[in-house]
Amino acid sequence: MSEQPDRWTKATVYADMWADPDDDPRNSDGAAPDGELPTLRDFLSSYRLTLLMKCEGLDPEQLARRSVPPSTMSLLGLLRHLAEVERDWSNWITSEDQLPSLYGKGGDFEGAVAEQTVVDAAYADLAREQAALDAMLAGHEDLGEHVGKENIAVRELLVHMIEEYARHCGHADLLRECVDGRVGQ
């Protein structure tokens, strides 16, 4: 990228935040979740929302912009990738037939093109796959329970999901800053 955008944030209280604390939808009423399972679910929910916040307000071209050539990574690609990953995690839980890939090998990033229909489909795919996985996980309250063909513990699966979103939210921070200069947590 030859021209770097000026850094900016909507936050007025802290210059390094994405939004002011009172406007941040990830902030709760101050009560922390009680127990390991609610805590893990809360962290996952927060990271899922963070990714969506990093993509907010951008048009298809901005979402599809590959900011660090030759990488194929873009914010739109991250949305598609995480929809694919959510589906893959669903496959980890079940012992049934595996769901097919949404985009094919490498298609999550390669297919992230600047078209409104692709953007709309990416958001719909992500929401659908998150809801499907959440419904599957609702039937497994015991974190020590082992599920699926791989016999993975529910706790391990949730921690892995949080790690995946956290890592990609870090990528989203950098991608968003390259797109329009917006910074923050």
TrEMBL record:
Pfam families: MST. InterPro entries: DinB/YfiT-like, MST-like. Residues 14-36 are annotated as: Disordered. It comes from the Bacteria. This is DinB family protein.
